[in-house]
Structures are given as C-alpha cells and as structure tokens.
Amino acid sequence: MLWSAGVYALHGAVVVPGETDANATLHRVLGPDELARFLNALESAADRWSSFVHRYRVTLPGGESRTLLVRGAPIGPRDAPGARLVGTIQDVTGAERDDEYLWHLANHDPLSGLFNRRRFMEELRREVALSRRTGRPGAVLILDLDHFKDINDSLGHAAGDALLSRIADRLRGRLRATDTLARLGGDEFAVVLADCSVEDARRVATELLEATRRHSSVRIAGRERKVSASIGIAPFGPEGDHRADELLVQADLAMYRAKENGRSRVEVFGEEMRAELAARIALEGELREALERGELRVHYQPVVGLDDGATRGCEALVRWEHPARGIVAPGEFMAVAEQSGLLARIDRFVLERACEQAARWRRAGHDVYVSVNVSLQHLVHKDAVPIVAEVLERNGLAADALLLEIKETALVQDRQALGHAIDEMRSMGVRIALDDFGGGPSSLGMLRDVSIDQLKVDRSFIEGVTDHADDRAIVAAVLSLASELGIEVVAEGVETEQQAEELRALGCPCVQGFLYSRARFPEDLDLGPTRRFDPAPGRSARMG
Fold first, then answer.
1. Considering only Cβ atoms within 10 Å of each terminal Cβ, which end of the chain, N or C, has fewer?
2. Residue 75: strand pairing partners
3. What CATH number did the domain enclosing 63 receive?
4. How far is Cα of residue 129 from the mean position of the Cα atoms in its chain?
5. Residue 364 is part of which domain span?
C-alpha cells in the first residue's frame, strides 16, 4: 500500500519548491537507505494495520541536513473502501537540538562537562548489571582532593573552579573510552572502570593520583603548591548482590580511610571496612531510634574560677543512655551522627535542654552561663540565628548566658562562612568560644578573622604544664595573647592540684576538668564555690 498524498502534511524545509506530490518529495530528500526504511515501515504498518513513528536524518537538494519525524496511522476498517494509511512528516531539527541541550544539562556537570551524579549512577547500575551477565569484574573509584578548602579560602572560588576543570581534563585523558568519569560535587570525582580487576583498578588509581600531582599545582601566598588527592576503590563482579548505591558508599569509605592513613594514597574496600560499615549502619539505626525514644541525655561539667573556686558556667555534654550498653560517650557516636546527617538534630536537642537548664539555674539565683558545642554545619546554616533566638526567648534567657563552642578545626574548613555566622551570633549577644585551642591545624593569625570571646586551651598542653617547659611556655603565651586581645581563657582537662597551682601562677582565670567535677546530671551538681567531686570508680577523667 502506498502513502496517501491526499492527507500528506509537509512542514518547513522538507518541501521541495515546484513539487506537490509528496511521494516525489520523499524520493528527492530521502537517500536510498532511508527510503527503504520508510517503505518497509509503511509495509509493516499496513500488514499490522497499526500506527508508527520513525525519525530520519535527510539531506536536502542544497546539501542541508535536517531531521524528520514521520508519524502514520490507519484510517477506517482495514477492508473497507477508502481505507488508507495517513500521516505527517515534521521537521524537528530545531526541537531536536533543544532536546539534546536539555538532555546535556540534565546529565552533565556544568563546571567540568563531566557526567553528574544522576547520570553516573545510571551508568554504574548498567555496568553492575552487565558484570552479572558477562562475568567480567569492575570497580568504582572515588577521588577527593586533599585540603581543597584551603585553596578556596586562600585564592577564592574562581581559582578553585579553574583547578577543578584542570583536574577533570587530566582525569579524562587517563581513562579509556569504556570507562565512566563524573564529578559528584565539590572536589569529589567518581570513575567506573569496566572489565577491570582489583589489581588493574589499583594501578589506574595510582596513575590518576600521579596525574593529579604532576599537572595540578596552584600558587598560594607566592608559593607553588602541588595538589594531591585520595582515592577509594570498591570492586564489584558477577558474584554477590552488588548495588550501585552501596558501591558508592564503599568507595567513599575507602577514600576516607586513605585520608586517615596520610592522604595522597589509594585504599581498597575490604572485609575489615565491610565490618566497619555494617557496624556504622547498625549504630546509625540505633541512634535514630535513640532520638525518637528520648535516650539522649545532657550532662554538665562546671567551669571554675581559679581565684575563688566559684562556678562561672557549665559545659553541656551529650550522653547516650543505651538500654543495653549503658552510658555511651559522644566520641563513640558523634562521627556517625555527622555522616548520617543527624548532627544538627543532636546540636539542637542539646541547645534546647541547656538553655532550659540555664534558665532554671538563674531563677534559682545561680549567675552562671551554659556552653554548648555546635558543629560547623549547624552554625553556618541559614536557620541557626533564628533557632537560637527562639530558644532564648522561649526560656526567658539572656543571650550572654549562652556560650557556643566551636572546634578549632572549624576555622580551616570555611573561615568566611564561619566568620559571618559568628558575627551574627555575637550581634545578638551570644558569646563564642574556641574549643581545643592549640590542638588543631589553625594559626594564631586566624584570630584576626573571627571574633572570639573565650579560648579553651587544649588538654594536651595542660597535661604537661607541670613537667614540660615547652607546654608551660605555650600556655603562658596563649594567656598573654588572649589578655592583649581581651579574650577569656579556660584551661581544659585539669586533673591534679599541681596543674591547678601551676595555672594559677601563670594567671589562668578559669579551669575545667576532673579535679573539680566530671560531667553530671544537673541535680547532682553543687554550684557552690568550693565543692569538689570524687571520681566514680573505674570512670576515666576523659569522660568529663
């Protein structure tokens, strides 16, 4: 059956001037192969008496290439008089270009031009399924640049973006056409190596590290600095029930193990990490349930004035009252809370409980402040200031009764965002403390960039203040610097009378530690000036 010219619709460039017969037009614009496809489609549709849609790439008499969308459908009963196939031919060249552009946007990272996370996961699922069918192994690689935030903070995000583009080009040049490369976000790249053993995956990863080091350097403060990376590998194969999302988690865990072991290295996910991952997933589930069941508790450890022994404030410290394991210290679950996105929720829980308790103490006549540890991600969140303001107002608590503690390490993660968040908190009267000062990688110069009310000297220096001249000199220097800057100092981890006497001689105003009290429930604390607490049998001073 031939195409019916009577209901034939031609659009745009496919119309050949001077011709009115649609069949003649088709013979002119379709090449022999495309014309054969078209006629076969017509015959098949006629045999099945069904509709069809086909797309053709054609060349017009002037040499211009266009894309045609051909649709056809039967009219009337098959054997009735006048029954025929009718249809349209539409020039979709422009729309096709628009579709290709939108597809590219949906599947590619705009900075590097690589696949994005969404498309990467599709390719990874495809490779895992192919591995099951063919029996050929593969591997997922996660590459993360080391100390990339330093570059953004020092040189700006434009320089960081330029470096990421350069890294993407280097990685692309070291991989096969059958491999998949993507930028997952930030400074994290991912690779799927198809038909690749663990040994080959390790070799490729080592080559990628070398390419990163050799060809990616930046100038910071007038000095050339080589950029390094850490890579984690998660192998997969026909055996086992591998899932794409699980493989990505495994590669990510291996990458973090590489960073923990010194950075600029490769680690392969293995059985030890598998057990660690299973334990982490189990702990995360228990922690979520603990939040729902109200198993988290807040204990308080006093900050004491060395001149009179009076309690100046109390640090709020979260504890987990596990139904089977008893009291669980934060060091055992806070890392999991951060990785699982529960940290901000725990921060808010402690903030609310601490402000409620501080309000009770003040109503009872105790003029003490309460300090709360907050994570960087919580402090820089856009809702942090409104949340703190609402909690203070709800409890009728003056803003200066709240001290927010941040880790010294937060200063090197995102100093600009942190400085802005601190300024907002201090503008409403909330005070800021820098915890573990001296134990992290920051420099004294960073104190110029952020406004701090209190420094808490890291316990590692307090341990040696009586026996090591270097530790004593460092504590003396911190006290002198803080005095010049108008910053209060608290010495953490004071455990012996000798340490307290040495700090008193150095002029340290306040101390905190097991010598005075471990962390306790508020009803177990005596906020009087000279009360001391004996340690619980077998309980380490590090709990406080």
1. N
2. 84
3. 3.30.450
4. 28
5. 294-528
Which CATH number do you get for residue 247?
Answer: 3.30.70.270
Residues written for the chain: 544
Structure tokens at 30: 């379709």
Tokens 């603990």 correspond to 290
From 382, 385, 377, 381, select the one nearest 402 (Cα to Cα).
385
- Asked whether the beta carbons of 179 and 205 are under 8 A apart, the reply is no
315 and 418 share a domain?
yes
Q: What is the 3-state secondary structure (H, E, C) of 446-458?
A: HHHCCCCCEEEEC
Q: Which residues contact 214 (CB under 8 A, 6 or more apart)?
A: none
β-sheet bridge partners, residue 304? 311, 511
State pTM to two decimals: 0.57
Residues 341 and 388 in one domain: yes
Ramachandran bin of 501, using left for φ above 0, alpha for ψ from -120 to 50, beta for the remaining angles: alpha
One domain for residues 94 and 168? no
pLDDT per position as a tens digit, 361-411: 999 889 999 999 988 777 877 788 999 999 999 999 999 999 999 876 666
Rounded to whole angstroms, the Cα distance separating 147 from 31 reads: 58
Are residues 173 and 79 part of one domain? no
Cα distance between residue 46 and residue 25, in whole Å: 21
